[in-house]
Amino acid sequence: MHTDIKAFFDPETWTFTYVVYAGEGSACVVIDSVLNYESKSGRTTTKSADEVIQFIVEHKLQLAWILETHAHADHLTAAPYLQGKLGGKIVIGDHITNVQQVFKGIFNLDEQFPIDGSQFDHLLKDDESLTFGNLSLKAMYVPGHTPACMAYEIGDALFVGDTLFMPDVGTARCDFPGGDAKALYQSIQKILAYPNETKLYMCHDYPPSDRPVAHLSTVGAEKQSNIHVHDGITEDAFVQMRSKRDATLEVPQLILPSIQVNIRAGHFPEPEANGKSYLKIPLNTL
Fold this sequence. Notes:
Elements: E1 4-10, E2 15-21, E3 27-31, E4 36-38, E5 43-45, H1 47-58, E6 62-67, H2 79-86, E7 89-93, H3 96-106, E8 122-124, E9 129-132, E10 135-141, E11 150-154, E12 157-159, H4 181-192, E13 199-201, E14 216-218, H5 219-225, H6 235-246, H7 255-262
Parallel strand pairs: 3-6, 6-7, 7-8, 12-13
Antiparallel strand pairs: 1-2, 2-3, 4-5, 9-10, 10-11, 11-12, 13-14
Helix pairs in contact: 4-6
């Protein structure tokens, strides 16, 4: 079955959102949506999500599933906004419960915050499939960047989340709570075991200054020239490199608002007595 893939780029967070469908009027999925957030004012806007919605409406698509590859630390998801406008079910990997448990402690969330993933409409297990129209996707558990990362196989394409980047950028960091460089190496090997021509769709790109942003790679290109994990790189060498590099990286600018919202499937915290929602900033913690 022919698969159409439309990529949207959010320049503020270097994030790619994808709409996957099978022609005009078909069912579709959205992968890794973005809710725009201004950290100085605490205001959210829907510019990036509205571009996705406009495309879906113009092509008469029916939104079946709103997928997250993981609980992102660099942008807020727009999943509830998309759902409110177009329907569909919000989906993430079933290991999100591990992430919820860790960050419930970090943010000292009250006992009313459940850590069973019930904020999401569906929790995907490794190798589980979902259908949308005449297409289907298969989930692949790829922990390492976070303990809950998933890649999604649709046709001859893999949507790899933050597991891999373009060959000249490398691989995801592993120093967030629950991250594990050894697990990431093993997850990457699962991806690189696919045929060389398999298309890999990135969640982010942080390009060197001599090229424009890009979202599409292949298994063959990653095996040949990924600067962190090309053929011949051993697990021990990768773990050593990743650990040394992660020690030099700054905390992502939006990690505190993003994680609080994203472990709630994109919903804001319950409003307080004045009708407003608030996010917490834990001091001297991360």
